[in-house]
From TrEMBL:
Pfam families: MST. This is DinB family protein.
Length: 164
């Protein structure tokens, strides 16, 4: 893979895109009902995770880096609200919104240097920090989603249940 020997920016962007793809794949093969299934007490569902990842893209890159106010982006007020599913949220609509948010994030980031700083409540952060944060956050959520999808497939596939 080319990112293994890439320069710093290409490496960070490549690693971020790997995690974006992992999050995007969470909904592959799931119908709307399965994608909405709550298997844990929190609002964490496969569909909710992808919806939350869209929120993360918009908060960090569309709002913080591109400096578009959060209310103009239609972002919920809290992180927890970003997992809330509306009746119109489907595998197709959430997936499309996520892909569009990622593409816009790439466009926004391309116009800035890694050392450029942006406001955050804890103090200024560089684009380099934002990339690192996004890689960690998306990797964590992809892992959560993998577990949920595995639970869903085990619950619906009698052969998988018999193997446990």
């Amino acid at each position: 893979m080319e990112i293994f020997v890439a320069g710093e920016r290409a490496l960070l962007e490549g690693l971020l895109d790997v995690q974006r793809e992992e999050v995007g794949r969470l909904l592959s093969g799931l119908d709307d009902a399965s994608a909405r299934a709550r298997l844990v007490p929190s609002l964490t569902t496969p569909l909710g995770l992808v919806k939350h990842a869209t929120f993360v893209e918009k908060v960090w890159l569309h709002s913080r880096v591109a400096r578009v106010p959060r209310d103009e982006l239609g972002l919920p007020g809290t992180v927890d609200e970003s997992f809330v599913l509306e009746p119109e949220d489907t595998v197709g609509s959430v997936s499309a919104a996520y892909r569009a948010a990622c593409e816009r994030s790439r466009e926004v980031a391309a116009a800035h240097d890694l050392d450029e700083q942006f406001p955050w409540h804890r103090g200024p952060v560089s684009l380099r920090f934002i990339y690192g944060h996004m890689i960690a956050e998306l990797a964590r959520h992809a892992g959560h989603g993998d577990i949920l999808v595995e639970q869903l497939s085990t619950a619906t596939d009698p052969q998988d249940r018999a193997a446990t």
